[in-house]
């Protein structure tokens, strides 16, 4: 009787390990720099009249609540600097990086029956206009980046208030007035002649304006 032919045993091919999942760009966490760049686009759109103050306020609020790049992209999709829809996979920061570096010479902050806050690390324009009507505006310059030595903050407070906080080592000057209201600016001159100079102008009608240094806050490099 013939011996049965033996079938050689073969090892099965190893199962390849699954490739690591790639996080879509829209799901990447947004950084503070990403939020600031989108906020700059919105502020420029407001200055150019592309956005109404109410729309701008709503979008700015959404910018600083956004946690991912995908939440930021729709906020500027209908503006000239926004990423095109066909390139949705590109990071928002790449589209923002292609924008010109020049910024508007002025910035507008409005609080009408509400509030507006500008603080943190931001680039100060040569002129900032603040309007408070039955609302409040807070401007905090203690962590801001000064790209010019002299800036003007023009405020109008009507049944509202504007509060301005500045570093201890800058010069603070005022030429505003109050009509049935208060215009309280603690003026002083910095010891360093190269320190930024902040001029607060405007008026308060049945409202209040206050500007003063914040204790313990100083600019690290006055010549930056």
Detail the topology: elements first, then pairings.
Layout: H1 32-47, H2 53-63, H3 69-72, H4 92-97, E1 106-112, E2 115-118, E3 123-124, E4 127-133, E5 136-140, E6 145-146, E7 150-158, E8 161-166, E9 171-174, E10 177-179, E11 182-185, E12 197-205, E13 208-213
Parallel strand pairs: 1-4, 2-5, 3-6, 4-7, 5-8, 7-12, 8-13, 9-12, 10-12, 11-13
Helix pairs in contact: 1-2
What does this structure look like?
The protein has four helices and 13 strands. It has helices spanning 32-47, 53-63, 69-72, 92-97, and strands at 106-112, 115-118, 123-124, 127-133, 136-140, 145-146, 150-158, 161-166, 171-174, 177-179, 182-185, 197-205, 208-213. Helix 1 packs antiparallel against helix 2. 30% of the residues are buried.
User: What is the β-strand count?
Assistant: 13
Uncertain regions: pLDDT < 50 for 5+ in a row? 83-93, 95-101
Query: What fraction, in percent, of the residue positions are helical?
Result: 10-25%
Distance between the termini: 98 Å
Question: Which class do the helix and strand fractions yield?
Answer: alpha/beta
Mean pLDDT, to the nearest integer, reads 80
Apparent shape: globular
Rg, alpha carbons: 27 Å
Beta-strand content: 25-35%
Order of helices and strands: HHHHEEEEEEEEEEEEE
Q: Total helix count?
A: 4
Q: What is the chains' assembly state?
A: single chain
Largest pleated sheet: 6 strands, parallel
